[in-house]
């Protein structure tokens, strides 16, 4: 029996996780669910899976459903402490963190300090203070299993070696990590991207995801975040990470070793595959996803990214090189800039300008950010980004 808590159960990761768990059978039990404000779906999930605990962060949503809990389910108060409580439940064997943005930081820390195994799709905490979080994992004997398809692919390529060695030792044998990206909806679009609408940005050609990550995929910022995430997860320097545009999304990522051998993880583009691997790890179970037919795979293309056309990727690598609190600032500024774009307050191309404007005024710190430094930097960046959006100082940015 594996008891599972899902934070962010009404998002794309959460709903896919529940689909996987339902198919896996009675040995996998959901004991905690959380959402932000999608009460209609959360209630359906609660009545289907009958968790011991549930939480909704939005106070108004909490009031709507507080009297609709089935017997045996306790609805927790609408506050971050409720997520931290569920993330550290003594009876939980696996915490699936499918939250979006920095809100997932403190629940992740709670899960780590409780020595939990965490299936992590919420990449922002690993961007904000990934090195420190990995040290905390060692300290508290916790484990992070990446859920996103590309970090999961790298994890799978290294899994056999990691059974006998630490990632620090494995890193010495890695020559290059090829982190693949579909290229998003604008990889082949001609002309300027300044007229891109939210609807166009949300029309991803390969993956069905939440709004924020879909826009990040369109700007390639998501791939910048993943680059920082895997640098921290697998202890590799920036120069060993190569972004590869792969429109077919069949090769989910690959690892090249010092002897020239390359291991790649391939499969149909469906998030349920890496999610199920994290849930059943180290075992593999039958999947509802169609298996890849190599004879039907007509071609595989691999291209270099255009950093001038997609400057968010260059900004992410600059933040990674700067270290300190810069990745945390990057994450927070992007989160608010994307929100402003979705609300049609700024242009698609302004997202990078906003992030750049905030980054260039951020305080410099040495070494890896501590947990407190990351949280403080996140708050500073949010205030600075809101000010930047209000005074429109980003319009002067030259990338």
List the domain count as a whole number. Answer: 2
CATH-assigned homologous superfamily of the largest domain: RNA polymerase sigma factor, region 2, helix turn helix motif
Shape: globular
Structural class from helices and strands?
A: alpha/beta
Q: Any idea of the CATH class of the largest domain?
A: Mainly Alpha
Q: Which segments are poorly predicted (pLDDT under 50) over 5 or more consecutive residues? A: none
Question: What order do the helices and strands follow?
Answer: EHEHEHEHEHEHEHHEHHHEEEHHHHH
How many helices? 16
Average pLDDT, all residues:
94
Biggest sheet record: 7 strands, parallel
Strand content: 5-15%
Based on the structure, what is the oligomeric state of the protein chains?
Answer: single chain
Spatial sequence of strands, sheet with the most strands: 4-3-2-1-5-6-7
Number of strands: 11
Tell me the CATH topology of the largest domain. Answer: Rna Polymerase Sigma Factor, Chain: A
Helical content, roughly? Answer: 40-55%
Radius of gyration from CA coordinates: 20 Å
Plain-language structure description:
- The chain has 399 residues and is an alpha/beta fold.
- It folds into two domains: 2-147, NAD(P)-binding Rossmann-like Domain (Rossmann fold, 3-Layer(aba) Sandwich), CATH 3.40.50.720; 160-396, RNA polymerase sigma factor, region 2, helix turn helix motif (Rna Polymerase Sigma Factor, Chain: A).
- The protein has 16 helices and eleven strands.
- The protein has a seven-stranded parallel sheet, sandwiched between helices.
- The relative contact order is 0.11.
């Amino acid at each position: 029996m594996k008891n599972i808590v899902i934070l962010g159960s009404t998002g794309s990761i959460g709903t896919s996780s529940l689909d996987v768990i339902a198919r896996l059978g009675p040995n996998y039990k959901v004991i905690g669910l959380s959402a932000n404000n999608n009460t209609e779906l959360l209630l359906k999930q609660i009545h289907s899976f009958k968790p011991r605990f549930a939480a909704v962060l939005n106070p108004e949503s909490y009031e709507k459903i507080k009297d609709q809990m089935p017997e045996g389910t306790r609805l927790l108060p609408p506050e971050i402490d409720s997520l931290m409580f569920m993330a550290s439940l003594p009876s939980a064997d696996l915490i699936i963190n499918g939250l979006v943005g920095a809100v997932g930081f403190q629940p992740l820390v709670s899960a780590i300090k409780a020595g939990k195994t965490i299936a992590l799709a919420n990449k922002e905490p690993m961007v904000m203070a990934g090195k420190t979080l990995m040290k905390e994992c060692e300290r508290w004997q916790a484990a992070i299993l990446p859920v996103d398809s590309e970090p999961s692919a790298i994890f799978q390529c290294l899994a056999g070696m990691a059974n006998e060695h630490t990632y620090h030792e494995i890193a010495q044998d890695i020559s290059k990590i090829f982190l693949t990206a579909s290229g998003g909806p604008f990889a082949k679009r001609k002309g300027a991207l300044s007229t891109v609408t939210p609807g166009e940005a949300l029309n991803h050609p390969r993956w069905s995801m939440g709004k924020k990550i879909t826009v990040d995929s369109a700007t390639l910022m998501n791939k910048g975040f993943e680059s920082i995430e895997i640098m921290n997860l697998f202890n590799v320097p920036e120069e060993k990470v190569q972004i590869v545009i792969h429109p077919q999304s069949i090769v989910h990522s690959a690892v090249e070793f010092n002897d020239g051998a390359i291991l790649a993880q391939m499969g149909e583009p469906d998030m349920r595959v890496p999610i199920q691997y994290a849930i059943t790890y180290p075992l593999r179970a039958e999947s509802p996803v169609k298996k890849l037919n190599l004879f039907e795979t007509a071609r595989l293309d691999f291209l270099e990214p255009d950093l001038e056309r997609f400057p968010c990727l260059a900004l992410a690598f600059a933040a990674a090189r700067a270290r300190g609190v810069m990745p945390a600032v990057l994450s927070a500024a992007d989160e608010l800039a994307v929100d402003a774009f979705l609300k049609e307050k700024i242009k698609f191309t302004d997202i990078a300008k906003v992030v750049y404007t905030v980054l260039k005024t951020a305080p410099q710190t040495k070494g890896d950010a501590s947990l407190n430094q990351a949280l403080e930097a996140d708050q500073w960046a949010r205030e600075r980004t809101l000010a930047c959006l209000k005074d429109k100082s980003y319009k002067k940015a030259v990338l």
